[in-house]
Each structure stands twice: as structure tokens, then as C-alpha cells.
Specification:
Elements (H helix, E strand, L loop, with lengths): L34 E6 L2 E6 L12 E5 L1 E3 L3 E6 L3 E10 L5 E7 L15 E3 L5 E7 L14 E7 L4 H8 L24 E4 L11 H9 L3 E7 L15 E5 L1 H12 L4 E4 L1 H8 L11 E5 L14 E4 L7 H10 L1 H14 L9 E4 L2
Parallel strand pairs: 1-17, 3-12, 3-14, 4-11, 14-16
Antiparallel strand pairs: 1-2, 5-6, 6-7, 7-10, 8-9, 9-10, 12-13, 13-15, 16-17
Helix pairs in contact: 5-6
């Protein structure tokens, strides 16, 4: 994993006091009751997510991610060091896993002093052997040790089975308490594989989807299984497995040819779409692992608008947002969101950016 070599132009103070510490349902709101900031060249509007159909037009196409969230966090022990929290980031093609070790009990910080050959003891007689840094030695742009490891499980159960029995959703210390796995699934979730929720689609409800279709807005699906989101500042997103179906590609191409807008629901969807654009500028059915990093230097080509949550300064996701929306519109959106106290993180508020 390499440093991005670029930082976002959007500037703001990290809003730690605006973290959504619980799902909107625990705040007395339905999923589609969260706030939605709508930013266009004409200005900024403050709405609710359930108002989304009012800001789209017949012939527009929403593209959503069908990946479902795994219970990818579990406890382990480093012999001689003590307890750790393990995050299972991705299953690789050879059956090994990418894992991140974090401090117990709340996964507050990454563990950076692990070494190849270490064995992490797991409940139930299983263990993880750390094989090598992922994707290569010295992957951390800070030079402070290796955050991600390729690991191999041993014992009575494979790691997928261990997650089913001992896993819980990945959570960080800003949450008020633990929430069930169902809180981390979107209405589109059907293909398990994400370490963390593709959260931009969380505010959608079946009723809202029905309304969108009834008003002439199309919906296409793809899959991108997310890794862990706890990158260091300046760290590029890790490779992620994706699939863009041929049918979805045809829908995107037809929408663009007919003058409609292609609006990606989330940075994960944007990454998958832009990983399947051919030299002819058209979207094609594709699958595999993507290392595509979208930024103003290498911008989005088929995405015209974006539904997203709010990202911290210097996050690679913010470079993607600037690529789609432009730095000026992104700055206006963030300034307005901070002024109005929009909530951050997976259970927070939304933005619709239509450049």
C-alpha cells in the first residue's frame, strides 16, 4: 500500500464533536429520516433523505452496492503481549486473509509491532499465523510498522466459520455501545463480503426505493466488498474485490447516451464503476480486484453525481469526492455541513452532490 501522493483541497477542522454515536433509529428517526445536504452549482439545500426523489429526474440512474457486511471483528491473544482485537479485512484468492491487529478492548489504535511468524490464539482452538505484511513490507506511509497482514487460519474451523461463531461488527470507540449486525446492513445487502458497511446506502428504505422507481429513476446494482476504513492519513485504499455485471454496465451506458445522470451511491460504488471503464470510455462488465484510486489527478469518467456520507480531512475518500463534485462544490458542501452540525460516520447524515 502506497501513499496517495496528494491531499484533498477541501479544508476544515476534524469535527470529532459531530460523530453519530448511534444509529438514527436510536435517535428516534427512521433510516430515511437522516439529514441530506444537496449541493449543486446553484447552491446548497438542506433536506431529509426521504426527499431524495425531489432532487432526481426521470431517466437518472442510481447505482448501488449489494455487498453485505460481515461480523469481521473478533478477539485474540498475542502470546507474550496480551489481548488484541482482530479485524478481518478481506479473504484473498488463495484462502488466506488480510487482517489488522488493533488494541484491546475497543480497537482504539492499530498494533504496529507485530512480526511475521507470530501466532494469534483465537477462542475455540483456532489460531492465526501472520505470514507477511500486506500488501508489502513497509506498507505504512508513516514508516511506523505494518498495519495489515496476510494471515492463515488453522484449527477446527476456517476463518469464515470462526466469524459466524465469534465475530461481531467492526466498531470503533466513538460508538455509544455495540449494535447488532442488522444495524450494519443496507436494504440492498445480498452478497456477504464487506469488512465494514457500505454506509452511503444505509438511509434507503424499501418504501423510498419504490417511490424512486415509480418516479422514473432507475436503479442498477454492482458489488464491491469493502476493506477496513482505518487508513493512516495519506494512505491509499487497499485492493478490494468487485463485480460490475454486464447488465448494469449496459444500463449505465444507455443512461449516459440518453442524457440521464449516473449517480453513484457511495465511494465504494464509484470505485467499482470507474474500475470497469474501458479505453472506449464505456462501462463494461468486469470483476476481480481493483486498486483504482480516484482523485482529481485520475478523475471519475462515468459518474455524474454522488450520494455519500462525510469524510475526514486527508482521507482518500475525500479525493474521490473532489474528483466527482469538484473541489469548490465540495468545499461549499463541507462548510455548510459543519455550520449546520451534520453528523459524521456510518450512522450519520448524508450528502447528494450534483455538479
Amino acid at each position: 500500500m502506497t501513499a496517495l501522493g496528494a491531499t484533498p483541497r477541501t479544508r476544515f477542522a476534524s469535527p470529532d464533536d459531530l460523530t453519530a454515536a448511534e444509529p438514527p433509529e436510536d435517535r428516534g428517526l427512521p433510516r430515511d429520516g437522516v439529514r441530506m445536504l444537496v449541493a449543486t452549482p446553484q447552491g446548497v439545500v438542506h433536506a431529509r433523505f426521504r426527499d431524495l426523489p425531489a432532487y432526481l429526474s426521470p431517466g437518472d440512474l442510481l447505482v448501488v452496492n449489494t455487498s453485505a457486511t460481515l461480523a469481521a471483528e473478533f478477539d485474540g491473544t498475542r502470546p507474550g503481549f496480551g489481548e488484541v482485537v482482530v479485524h478481518a479485512a478481506a479473504r484473498l484468492d488463495d484462502g488466506t486473509w488480510v487482517v489488522e491487529l488493533r488494541t484491546a478492548p475497543d480497537a482504539t489504535r492499530p498494533v504496529l509491532d507485530a512480526a511475521a511468524g507470530e501466532r494469534i490464539v483465537l477462542p475455540g482452538g483456532s489460531a492465526l499465523a501472520l505470514l507477511e505484511p500486506y500488501p508489502s513490507p513497509g506498507s505504512s506511509p508513516t514508516g511506523r510498522g505494518n498495519r495489515l497482514w496476510r494471515a492463515e487460519a488453522s484449527g477446527p474451523r476456517c476463518l469464515s466459520q470462526h466469524l459466524l461463531r465469534h465475530g461481531r461488527p467492526i466498531a470503533y470507540g466513538y460508538l455509544a455501545r455495540r449494535y447488532p449486525l442488522s444495524a450494519y446492513q443496507t436494504v440492498f445487502a445480498s452478497r456477504p463480503g464487506s469488512a465494514e458497511m457500505p454506509s452511503a446506502a444505509r438511509p434507503f428504505t424499501p418504501e423510498l426505493v419504490t417511490t424512486l422507481i415509480a418516479t422514473g429513476v432507475g436503479i442498477a446494482t454492482l458489488t464491491l466488498h469493502t476493506g477496513v476504513s482505518s487508513q493512516d492519513a495519506g494512505e491509499a485504499p487497499q485492493p478490494e474485490r468487485f463485480e460490475v455485471p454486464a447488465l448494469g454496465a449496459r444500463l449505465v451506458n444507455a443512461t449516459r447516451a440518453e442524457g440521464g445522470r449516473v449517480i453513484a451511491v457511495g465511494t465504494t460504488t464509484t470505485r467499482a464503476l470507474e474500475s470497469a471503464v474501458g479505453a472506449d470510455g464505456l462501462l463494461h462488465g468486469a470483476s476481480g480486484w481493483t486498486e483504482r484510486v480516484i482523485s482529481p489527478r485520475d478523475p471519475a469518467r462515468v459518474v455524474d453525481g454522488l450520494i455519500t456520507g462525510w469524510h475526514h480531512p486527508e482521507a482518500s475518500h475525500l479525493l474521490l469526492v473532489e474528483s466527482v463534485a469538484g473541489a469548490a462544490l465540495t468545499q461549499r458542501a463541507y462548510d455548510a455541513a459543519l455550520e449546520r452540525g451534520y453528523l459524521w460516520h456510518e450512522f450519520g447524515d448524508s450528502a447528494l452532490l450534483l455538479p
